[in-house]
Specification:
- It is built from 13 helices and 28 strands.
- By secondary structure, the protein is of the alpha+beta class.
- Strand 21 and strand 22 form a beta hairpin.
- Helix 2 crosses helix 3, helix 5 runs antiparallel to helix 6 and helix 5 runs parallel beside helix 8.
- The two termini are 42 Å apart.
Length: 723
């Protein structure tokens, strides 16, 4: 891996023989596990400006129609998160000279509050080619991490590391994006036009001094300009400066933006339509029937065929699942039960994916497991060898297990002497269901037939006979560890405790996928770790705590929620505790805060435990049933300052290791669902989305998604576009 400093650049072809498709990753961390940012990508022409507002990609416009850019979403890392972007450089339009990769914070947050700001670029196999770390972040609320630009026929990467105090709005305006004037309302018809200013001076991403003496890419046919100094952080209204002594360029006249029009996408209503059946015993006809499945082999064959066929027929879905593996956007065909030669005995992978773009093929083998069946190293190794010999780009494993950083699901050996590299990637059935849920419930797909196909896929995956229910087994170490904790014979350093901690982490990640898909919000586990801690050492420390305290603890953050949800599984008492800490309103009288909380929790369960938090200690506590008539009982008798409240629900813990009705996994799912639906949903939501929208560029010609529930379409309540 090539480590770059600010202003340095490198040709991607010097780092990899196959850099036509790359994955750019932006990451950050904090010791508290808090902190988030949104990534975005801008496509710039030779003049350093976007060709139109459609060249700006962010959370509500995550993919380019030509497949050149796709935001792949966040994955949790130790102490933070990583946001990945798929970039197919072979599909970038010829009049685009640069791809600028940025991130922004919102709600008054600054990048100086985060640690380990870093950007990496990996090839399609996942091998990291280069890295760039930003160490001087301070008051900036937006950053240009880096840019990929053309130099002749090749692509190069430049480490930029330039920040903006004015956030995403200031950054985007410099590149020619229309930005809504603050406080202006488009109205219901979306026809009000907001004024915006474009900068005519040099764009900021090109200002660095690479070791080779290059500056930003010049217009076609022009000589390369001399190096210019990096721009300082500036206010949005200040001029853009170039070399010392030059006059700032005058801004062009402000121009009004034309009316917006609705962009129709189909989503499905959350409420199921009333059935026309005579009675509840009638079962609806299904495209993918599951009740007749009896053997694991039948389940694997059916599940593979169902998934691959829907991927080929619903482009948005197929692209979303394969873009992270380096696949281009193009015509996709899928196959099952393909026989491929391998020594004396042909091998039959469960499926094959082939994507064609501009006469070039991207291919992958698929190995599927259902129920609790595990991937076998020997079998996957054979497919890796076949893929390497036949020029396949990837081997994709698909099972109910959830992959963890630093804990591979299957061990394979790679022949480093082979010029052609094969990527080994993993998908969990939970992630497949999550992506389908996000598309048909929240983001929308191209037409009603695609939405129906995804709904049928989800119904199949959720059927008890499909074997595709996600992570559903805590592993063979679960019962011995529970018994060891019960008899106080489990010692620190026991490898079985580490296995239980890994299973617990897989379960929490699956809970996040499921809950995030249902809510349509980013939901990630919070992992608190010291800087430099490896995943293995962190899990070993958690395993030692499990042996000592007998508890498994996890935290997860739901976007726009007022606090972090904490889940504690006490193996000694057999109780699950889900809780959240909310701060007390600043400047309010203690009794006023207590009464306000009681009003907010008017519909919460009577057995909800409420605990008053004081400076460095706990205060009065009680159930909601007892405290509702007398909110004053929540106040400390000594007059100590109230800092917040802790809300908790308790539930009995399942005893078996699996996902049966009496199982531990089912009890965790039920506890999180009940807590979010009956407690979190009634609390005032942190309006971070509105704060983020206030600094986002407006997208011309796009008002929002449209939810079609029948012949007539109605506007989706949560359009997820800038206001």
């Amino acid at each position: 891996m090539r480590e770059l400093t600010k202003g340095a650049n490198v040709a991607l072809a010097d780092l990899s023989d196959d850099a036509g498709s790359v994955i750019a990753s932006l990451s950050w961390s904090s010791t508290t596990g808090d902190g988030d940012a949104d990534v975005s990508v801008l496509l710039l022409d030779g003049g350093g400006k976007v060709r139109s507002d459609s060249d700006f990609f962010y959370y509500n416009n995550p993919a380019a129609a030509d497949g050149s850019v796709q935001l792949l979403g966040k994955t949790p890392t130790d102490g933070g998160s990583e946001d990945r972007i798929g970039l197919d450089l072979t599909a970038v339009p010829p009049d685009v000279e640069r791809l600028v990769v940025t991130a922004s914070r919102y709600g008054g947050s600054r990048f100086g509050e985060l640690d380990d700001l870093r950007m990496t670029v990996a090839d399609r196999t996942g091998e990291v080619l280069l890295g760039f770390s930003i160490a001087d972040a301070g008051v900036e609320s937006a950053f240009i991490f880096g840019e990929l630009y053309r130099r002749g026929a090749e692509w190069k990467y430049r480490a930029v590391g330039q920040g903006y105090e004015t956030g995403l709005a200031g950054l985007a305006t410099d590149f020619g994006i229309d930005v809504d004037d603050e406080g202006e309302n488009d109205g219901e018809d979306g026809a009000a036009a907001g004024e915006a200013a474009d900068r005519a001076a040099a764009s900021p991403g090109a200002q660095d001094e690479p070791p080779t003496g290059e500056a930003g890419p010049p217009p076609p046919g022009a000589p390369e300009p001399a190096p210019v100094p990096r721009q300082p952080v500036r206010e949005a209204g200040s001029p853009v400066s170039g070399n010392a002594g030059t006059e700032p360029a005058a801004a062009p006249p402000r121009r009004a933006r034309g009316p917006r029009t609705a962009k129709k996408k189909v989503t499905l209503p959350a409420v199921v339509k009333k059935s026309l059946a005579e009675n509840d015993a009638w079962k609806a006809a299904r495209l993918f029937p599951a009740p007749t499945l009896k053997s694991d082999r039948e389940r694997e064959v059916r599940a593979t065929s169902v998934l691959l066929s829907v991927m080929a027929q619903v482009p948005e879905f197929g692209r979303r699942l394969t873009a992270a593996f380096g696949a281009p956007a193009g015509r996709m065909e899928t196959f099952t039960e393909v026989s491929l030669p391998h020594g004396d005995t042909p091998k039959r992978p469960d499926g094959v994916i082939r994507v064609e773009r501009a006469g070039k093929l991207w291919t992958a083998l698929v190995e599927t497991k259902t129920n609790g069946n595990v991937l076998r190293s020997e079998q996957v190794q054979n497919y890796m060898d076949i893929a390497a010999r036949r020029g396949y780009e990837a081997v994709i494993t698909l099972s109910n297990d959830v992959a963890l950083e630093g804990s591979p699901l299957v061990d394979v050996k790679t022949d480093g002497r082979r010029k052609h590299k094969v990527a080994l990637r993993h998908l969990s059935w939970a992630e497949v269901a999550h992506q389908a849920h996000m598309l048909i419930r929240h983001e929308g797909v191209g037409n009603a037939a695609h939405a129906w196909l995804l709904q049928e896929l989800l119904h199949y995956l959720q059927h008890e006979n499909s074997g595709c229910h996600g992570f559903q087994n805590m592993g063979p170490s679960w019962v011995p560890v529970r018994n060891g904790i019960d008899t106080e014979t489990l010692c620190q350093g026991d490898a079985r405790a580490v296995e239980v901690v890994e299973s617990w982490e897989r379960l929490i990640r699956q809970v996040c996928l499921r809950l995030g898909g249902e809510l349509g919000r980013k939901t990630l586990p919070v992992q608190r770790a010291q800087r430099g801690t490896t995943p293995q050492s962190r899990r070993a420390a958690l395993a030692d705590r499990l042996c000592e305290e007998g508890r498994l603890t996890a935290e997860l953050r739901v976007e726009d929620s007022p606090g972090v949800i904490t889940i504690v599984a006490d193996l000694r008492t057999g109780k699950l505790r889900t809780s959240v800490e909310i701060p007390a309103p600043e400047g309010a009288y203690p009794l006023t805060s207590a009464k306000r909380l009681m009003r907010q929790l008017a519909d919460a369960p009577a057995d909800l435990h409420v605990e008053t938090l004081l400076d460095g200690r706990s205060g009065p506590r009680g159930t909601l049933e007892r405290l509702r008539p007398e909110p004053g009982d929540m106040l400390p008798g000594d007059g100590s300052r109230i800092t917040g409240f802790r809300l908790s629900l308790f539930k009995g813990m399942g005893v078996s290791r699996g996902n049966a009705e009496s199982g531990f996994i089912r009890s965790v799912d039920d506890a999180v669902d009940r807590f979010h639906a009956h407690v979190i949903a009634h609390l005032p939501q942190a309006d971070r989305r509105a704060a983020r929208r206030s600094q986002e560029p407006a997208r011309e010609g796009e008002q929002g998604a449209v939810q079609e529930t029948g012949p007539a379409a109605s506007t989706t309540p949560d359009a997820r576009v800038p206001a």
